[in-house]
Amino acid sequence: MATSLSAPPHPLRALKGEAPGRRGGENLTLALVVIAFAQLMVVLDTTIVNVALPSIQRALRFSATDLEWVVNGYSLAFGGLLLLGGRAGDLFGRRRMFIAGVLLFAGGSLAGGLATTSTWLIVSRVVQGAGGAIVAPTALSLIADTFQEGAARNRALGIYAGAAGGGGAVGLILGGLIVNYLSWRWVLFVNVPIAIALAVAAPRVLAASDARSGRLDLPGAISVTGAMTLIVFGLSRAALYSWSEVTTVATLGAGAALLVLFILIELRSKQPLVPLRIFANRNRTGAYLLRMVAGATTLAVLFFLTQIVQDVLGYSPLKAGFAFLPLGVGVVVTAQVTSRLVGRIGARLPITLGALLVAGGLALLTRITDQASYVPDILPALIVLSIGLGLIFFPTTVVAVSGASRSESGLASAVLNVSQQLGGSIGLAVLGTIAVGVTRDHLTTVRPTHALLNQALTAGFTTAFEIGVVIALAGFVLALLMIRVRSPKP
Fold it and tell me: What distance in Å separates the CA atoms of residue 358 and residue 387, rounded to the nearest whole number?
């Protein structure tokens, strides 16, 4: 018999017609707006700052090597603290931690917008990342607390998945508009009023979840935070330098050692930070792996295609941002449509079809040349990719949180976010190394000219897209082998 997509509600609450943990009479539409905006704010911040990097470098006199820390500072804190943020929500109350997270994010954004030195800005970005690591997993858990099982929760998860999948493209557009018409500082300031509004609205519209007995597994938290931080940092170094560079090897080795230590701690702990039984569910583990694939392909497309349209085709940052509009819109629309279908056809078909479409979209991008035009060469690939990613993001979200106990839903959500973050870092490191190697090989025996440089860059990026096709097809195979949720029980 096919596995159910959700556990039954508590019988007493079911009699009252309420979702677990939710008070009656709440404005569910406003609750969904709060959760979706919080997720969008966190996700788009990974790309919105990228557009402003040249302006930031000039204004704060960043060196070429230090500039990467404007992005890495956020990514390292976000990726390193996600598991801790999710577990803190389970233990101390999700709504309480959600509000704390958005306020911390607002504080980091305000400090970053006021920065007058490079160090000041980097520290502010780390604070932002820490706030995001609390908001992201608690936002997903709050959907389960706030919305009753069935169509209402599926629609809410569809909007959440659309925000998670389309936020990167939205960030490029918004960043281009802000840098073009205002100042790079408003790339950060724009978060402050949004975050404050979310913090004010949250107690009025979101379900309260009580703090739970138990203690935080500090040895596990320290080891996994150190492991995730070192691994994400090492992968970002590999993408910029090489896999054999001394710092890259050292940080990846240390991260792997801490990860092994973390597993040993969790096996012995009476109250582990991450109970390893959460991975015993085959469908959930498959959803995590598929989200890694989606994260790798999404970040690679945004990173490489942004360079192609700006550095090779000569688009302005604003024009480049709007070039990605079909990707963001397509992910959101497809996620919404999928949210209405999963209850009837199950999660397996959309996920497997989505992986195939992602492979097809990447295959279309392999045909791009340095003379490419947007409508015939880039737009079709973005449309196919957006549909494929939309088919993956929503069902994997449903599968990952379904069946998790209420005391562990924040953790299940956090692991889902970690999977996407790690997938993006690993994908960018591997594909970036390949792209750089191919570009270098094309320029080894020739005297570089502008035309030859464009050809070499394009050759490197299209080769990376070819490897991306293989990654997406591997995701298709994983979906066939691991996802067994076909349709929900009657």
Answer: 8
